[in-house]
Amino acid sequence: MTTYWCERAWLPDGIAGAVRVEVADGRITQVTPDAPRAGTVLGGLTLPGFANGHSHAFHRALRGRTHRERGTFWTWRDRMYSLAARLDPDAYYRLARGVYAEMVLAGYTSVGEFHYLHHAPGGKPYAEPNAMGDALRRAAADAGIRLTLLDTCYLAGGIGVEPDEVQQRFSDGTAENWARRVAELAEDELFRVGGAIHSVRAVPADQLSDVDNGTPPERPLHIHLSEQRAENEQCLAAYGRTPTTILYDHGVLGERLTAVHATHLTQLDIERLGAARGRACFCPTTERDLGDGIGPARALLDAGVRLCVGSDSNAVVDAFEETRALELNERLASEERGRFSADELVAAATEHDAVGWPEAGTLAAGAAADFVTVGLDSVRTAGIEPSGAVFAASGADVRHVVVAGREIVRDGEHQLIERPETVLAKEIEALWQF
Question: Active site includes 261?
């Protein structure tokens, strides 16, 4: 058994002081406030580990490389496709281990990887059909983060459009073929497999339920939903219905479904997502980077939709920045403050169930031993109330990270991968050299 003593800790019923947390076999066995100091001392504020609900690991290589010219989401996508064409399993493994190490350093203890880069150029399967997914599994294991591979079905280049040369790498041809490949992935202690529908643009309506049925019932199902107005316009032109209505009509809306972005929704869309008790994953730093717009987070929560957050394109990897942006974006859109309480924001930030880890996300006996300690003595956090860390702290203030009872970050240093910034610099530069 390992004992931690937290100066302050964010417990299910609020922030407490002098909290002893006892850990054995990757689980929290006991949490005791007002306890005498013993074991490993964690100064500052300890919170449940943050959940990264939506990531495209390879997009990290685009950071700082798409701003030279004015453009649109679609011109950004062209550059992203150019990058995708350069990756193979070995290169992806090397890049992703740096990306996942950066996530842990920023406070994330689990990540849902929305994975659609499956095959070799031209769409030819690798000798090991899941070589790219396995590269991500190995990278996450090296970095010490829980990974749910949200293996993504991607069959079309648009509604009624065949995949182009790059998109052929994403496609299994049919949802049935996709499900057959995904079934070959084996889970382990820190690796789980869920499913994803890339979007209603990329999966024909008559195959949506096949993806739903092909995803194990106990695992999550995600989809990009109404991220761009153009997506809605194309969907209305082709089907006469919104993307949410198409999911509703095909029986895909449900508690395990997470709608990623959910930016441009009608009132009926919001009501249907709420009635289904699904989730919406907001990715504020990416949504502002791409000019997507501000989604109706408060309205969705009020309707019964559970919220989570993700780093998406990894233009920014910072759990605190992503979390507080839910509130700050709402302030801009509504011209009001106090749209979310700090507790509501932390609940969204620690929604591990959205990526298939329901045992994580709380500091309580029986929960997974995943927690993050943030310093309250930096230039950013000095003088704040502890609950204000959600608004004041950044990933740079993360001091200590434990995942499944294992110490991954100590005193701000990753314990498994030496100098992740060097790993990232080397691999990203190599990708853009050819």
Answer: yes
